[in-house]
Amino acid sequence: MSPKYTKALLAFVILLIVTIPFGLEYYTSQPSFCGSCHIMKKYYATWEKSKHRNIACVECHYAPGQQHTLTAKFKGLSQLFSYLATSGTEVRKKTRIDDSSCSTSNCHPLDEKFNSKKIKFTDKVSYVHKTHFDKTIEGQKLHCSTCHQHRSSSTHFEVPQENCFLCHFKNTGFNEGRGKCVLCHEMTDKPLQKQFENGGGPAGVKPITHKSLKEAGVLCTSCHIELIRGNGDIKEENCLDCHEAGEDLAKAQDKKLMHSAHVAKGEIDCHNCHTPIVHKETEDILEIVRSQCALCHPDHHLYQKALLTGEAVEGVASTPGLMSRVKTNCLACHTKEDTDKKGQKILRGSPEACVACHTKEHNKMLAEWKTTIAKELNFAKESEAKAAQMIARSKGKKQGDEIAEANKALAKGRHFLQIIEYGHGVHNRKYSIMLIDEALNNFDEIIDNFEDE
């Protein structure tokens, strides 16, 4: 081989050595190369249909200036190993898009125009970026990908409304704080009554509008309580997809830690942890109210619970119900199907429930307890009436502070009797008798102090 030929061959080899890496990098940087991977085909397909189809994958998936670094090369190798190691069609780990990839001067620079621009999110809702940058949940740091996510096979990425609902309605009262309707919806002057449509309606009569209802102090829940359903609870079982049970799981309710470790770092989506909150109309607007007793009866069965728990009150020691130790609840005793005075179906307590757990002799226990408590309650009410009568007679004869103290003692005793009467003392016989005794102590003290007046 001639020296000239050797030099030419050597030059060609050197050229190949120099150009092949650049050629490989160019080839592997093309979207078509990304789409050739079996786990990327559906993502590539949605990219081709998206507004970003003229922007190469590496322009977004690597931060500006990162594409040619060792970090990027190792990241590419890890993706190659994932490709070779799996025969599935899913990407195992969520991709993380750096905010700087979105906010370059050629894309969406974070200037005042971008921050304050009103974007039409839905037909009724506009969106402003700056508002959301300024107000975040404890521990969170919002990223572009916090809201803009790949969620379905039909779009490359989108802003799921479920994410909006979770942030706005989680741990907020209806139409309060970040859940206020006017943050997203415009308060209109459109008449709500049919007769006022198209400028009609009785002369001199003002139509009812959302604005007039707000001015009158009418609660939004009067008409829209069904629009928000769910509470966004943590699905702790999902933690086990990444963590082991034990110490890690015990931290699941630490909101600041969870948000900083997962949301701020862009590792997972909100609904990997939270159950969804639904915000939309439903045809049956009454069922949600009918099925949630506490909406109309916020203190329903409060006295029954007070008796069963038997918490310590002034003058009475803590005395939980006999069956609280084995965590017996209402359904253990209320087994008899019946109807109330309004014809509504209810479950009543029955002696048969006592027998089912205990012995046949317990069949009479419920009736005996009812009789005993009723007798004691009637006796206490006689003392209550006498104490109230004496206070009334002493007006003008006793000092004002003495009468005030007596009324305070009377109210305390009456409250104890109300717990027993309205909560049904059989729920905790021993505690009921103790409450009656303390009520009698209050009434007797009033009678002794005011008897001579």
Automatic annotation (TrEMBL):
The keyword Nuclease does not apply. Gene3D superfamilies: Cytochrome C3, Di-heme elbow motif domain. Its main location: other. It is found in: Cell envelope. Residues 220-366 form the Outer membrane cytochrome MtrC/MtrF-like domain. Residues 14-91 form the NapC/NirT cytochrome c N-terminal domain. Keywords: Electron transport, Heme, Iron, Metal-binding, Signal, Transport. GO terms for molecular function: metal ion binding. This is Uncharacterized protein.
